[in-house]
Specification:
With 198 residues, the protein is an alpha+beta fold. The protein has a domain at 5-142: Gcn5-related N-acetyltransferase (GNAT) (Aminopeptidase, 3-Layer(aba) Sandwich). The chain is 31% helix and 32% strand. It contains 7 helices and 7 strands; from the N terminus they run αβαααβββαβαββα. Strands 1-2-3-4-5-7-6 form a 7-stranded mixed beta sheet. Strand 2 and strand 3 (86-98) form a beta hairpin. The protein is globular, with a radius of gyration of 16 Å. 22% of the residues are buried.
Length: 198
């Protein structure tokens, strides 16, 4: 089973009525933008890699996308209510996709200028719909470093805390612990029904 959102991004990911957020497959032309965003201190502090990414790092990563274990997307949003133009506001991905256990890890960033506008929630809703409806995943999980304000959003979306990994990373001169979260397909569908009933 080799279904990629990258083969039909419009029909699978962005085909909902809520079209102000679109997920498009990462292309070569996005690499400089991705590198520049991931190297921003206010974003990088929440990522696993403790170093500044180079062009070579991004190229190697891009070539690794050919395997079925990763589905990576640029998040774009309408530039204005009356504009058809769009701009890049973030990135979402499913990593470590395992078709045997039907699990995948999610990752996301929304650039600081576009945070707190609902783009992250909408992008994750589309990513999870793709994971559960198209890839037939059973469970999505993630790792969130202590102090990351996005944790509140994930919990609101139905994720459950599985546990804490103590002193998981060393950044900014200290150790950071992380929380492991997970969301099953049934939990996601129940949360989606509850949200739509409001």
């Amino acid at each position: 089973m080799k279904e990629h959102v990258t083969d039909n991004p419009v029909g699978i990911v962005s085909g909902s009525v809520d079209a102000d957020v679109v997920l498009s497959p990462v292309e070569q032309e996005h690499l400089t933008w991705l590198r520049d965003q991931r190297n921003r201190a206010e974003l990088n502090r929440w990522f696993r890699q403790p170093w500044m990414l180079t062009t070579s790092d991004q190229e190697k990563w891009f070539h690794s996308l050919q395997n079925r274990e990763k589905h990576c997307f640029i998040v774009t949003a309408a530039a204005g209510e009356s504009s058809r133009a769009s701009q890049k506001v973030g990135y979402v991905a499913l990593n470590q996709v395992n078709f045997i256990t039907r699990t995948a890890e999610f990752s996301i960033f929304i650039v600081p200028e576009f945070q707190a506008h609902g783009y992250g929630k909408k992008a994750l809703e589309k990513l999870f719909a793709f994971a559960f409806d198209n890839l037939n995943m059973h469970l999505i999980w993630g790792e969130v470093y202590e102090g990351n304000p996005a944790l509140a959003l994930y919990l609101k979306m139905g994720f459950r805390k599985e546990g804490v990994l103590r002193d998981r990373a060393f950044k900014e001169g200290r150790y950071w612990s992380s929380t492991i979260l997970s969301l099953t397909e049934n939990e996601w569908r129940l949360q989606a029904r509850h949200s739509s009933a409001r």
